């Protein structure tokens, strides 16, 4: 389950916008998922200072993964229906050794949607139709995601603590990857906490009903 914020971490100290049932490990896109693979390829590398605006830098500095509420590591940018209006939800796309946020968010959404469908009288008619991910910020439809290389490099340099609840190691994404591989390679800190998953699914339903 996600770790509590620590005093020496540079993570965001603002209140959590939602209850995250999973720790922060990013994901690899797997075949057979109920959602389509990322249809977007990564952009070419650019010199950060030379090609990126101060507005981009501020956006990346303020960015927090909506699942783990930390600086996104190995970040992807979700492309939602409000993207052109300024919605930029960056999310961790790390492996099971870390927070695994993108994969866990997709799984949580799929589980919440399954519960909703079973309660829907139209379930027998339309349960074959693919369901779309919902943006965790604006609640619009997510059509895919992409890698913004300059943003990813900027955020990967941010210091975070190890995703394992009992470990206090901290470092950049590169440091954390080396640490996880050598110190606790068999640990999966992103495994689901059932109680937090139930809280997440309840919050998702309340949001969709407009009661949250």
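^ structure tokens above, recovered residues below v
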């Amino acid at each position: 389950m996600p770790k509590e914020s620590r005093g020496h971490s540079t993570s965001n100290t603002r209140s959590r916008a939602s209850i995250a049932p999973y720790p922060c490990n990013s994901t690899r896109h797997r075949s057979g998922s109920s959602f389509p693979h990322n249809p977007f390829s990564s952009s070419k590398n650019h010199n950060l200072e030379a090609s990126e605006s101060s507005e981009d830098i501020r956006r990346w500095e303020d960015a927090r993964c909506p699942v783990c509420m930390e600086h996104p590591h190995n970040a992807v940018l979700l492309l939602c229906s409000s993207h052109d209006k300024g919605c930029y939800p960056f999310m961790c796309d790390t492996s099971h050794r870390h927070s695994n946020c993108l994969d866990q968010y997709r799984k949580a959404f799929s589980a919440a949607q399954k519960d909703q469908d079973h309660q829907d009288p139209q379930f027998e008619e339309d349960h074959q139709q693919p369901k779309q991910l919902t943006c965790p910020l604006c609640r619009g439809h997510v059509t895919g995601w992409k890698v913004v290389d300059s943003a990813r490099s900027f955020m990967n340099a941010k210091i975070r603590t190890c995703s394992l609840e009992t470990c206090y190691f901290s470092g950049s994404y590169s440091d954390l990857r080396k640490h996880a591989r050598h110190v606790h390679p068999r640990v999966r800190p992103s495994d689901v906490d059932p109680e937090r998953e139930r809280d997440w699914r309840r919050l998702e339903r309340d949001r969709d009903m407009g009661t949250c």
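Residues 7-46, 123-130 have pLDDT under 50 and may be disordered.
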